[in-house]
Amino acid sequence: MLSGHGTSSGLRVGITIGLASESETLWNNGIKQNAIFLAETLRHCPNVSSVVLVNTTSVRISKALPWDLDRWPVIALAEAKDGLDVLIELGGQVDADMTRHLKSRNARLVSYCCGFEYVHAMQSVIFGRPMWGDKLFVNQHYDAIWMVPQVAAGSQHYFQTLRRRPARTIPFVWSPVLLEQRAADLSVDPVHVPHAGPQRLTVMEPNIDVVKFCLYPILIAEEAYRNDPESIAFLHVTNAEHLATRSPEFISLMGHLDLVRNHKASFVGRYDTARFLAEFTDIVISHQWDNPLNYFYFDVCWLGYPLLHNADLCRDLGYYYPGNDVQSAAAMLRRIIVAQEDFDAAAYRQTQRSAIARFLPENRHVVETYTELLASLMAAAPV
Length: 383
Known about the structure:
Number of helices: 15
Oligomer: single chain
Radius of gyration: 22 Å
Strand content: 15-25%
Number of strands: 14
């Protein structure tokens, strides 16, 4: 188990994940990364003695999992259920029977909300995206609901009404540990190396829902290209191959852009962040709609790449533009391009890492907040 900084009488905490395969990657979504970062945070809490990741599916746990099982151990829920004081439901749901069992042991059950569940439900209902069908289970016996800040505006009341508990905003946490492990596997150091001349622009939005979509970043690049075509070498858009090959609407829109007409843009599939930055990127352009904190921003800025974004919960990172203002973003992109001629990469990277420090698992305020959250959870009468 993960060792904490507390005594043997400290809390034994589990964090749920839902494995889909024995060798499931850490990079297919942010949920397992979130679980690992939360585990890293709780290790620093003085009232925690151990933390494990708890798998809620029937997938066998083996050494095929692509992470350090000594550092981040994973055990099956059936094995973990009698050895936990707190179970944090994050990436795998706990059913009614398991909830009753945990309650019979006086264990606490926390719903840790890090997804845009209202948006996902809305899109599922309106656009016919299957999610739960007639098999929906809404657990109304949580002892607490914790939510990361970026989901509060859109989903807080969705959580509270359905789960019949108040939802509390808690610190968003991120660690460079997984990024650095991935970077170590590359043949080149993925930190940003600036150069003068035409710049390669990259857009890496997931393009699976409305909160993180590539269109506005593409329009920002287009505006900058129209104003100074010689300054832009190319635009890469990842996670967009399916749009460029199967969406007539997207294809039609792109056909009106100079970048596309002049063969200065590509729409490719899924790539991991570190590799794509190292091989194809000078500047990253991003856009979010009600998603003002994201691991991707931290990955990009930790490695020192200029990030042009509109995320107001981390506006001190990279280069911030407001809302959907394509014109001001394009003007800022031009300034970033010009600045690459004498860009102090080491100083910029250090500034970015200093700004990210408030989100790290060892940050004093973060640790104190989670310590207090757990203390309050255990002090309150169980639901």
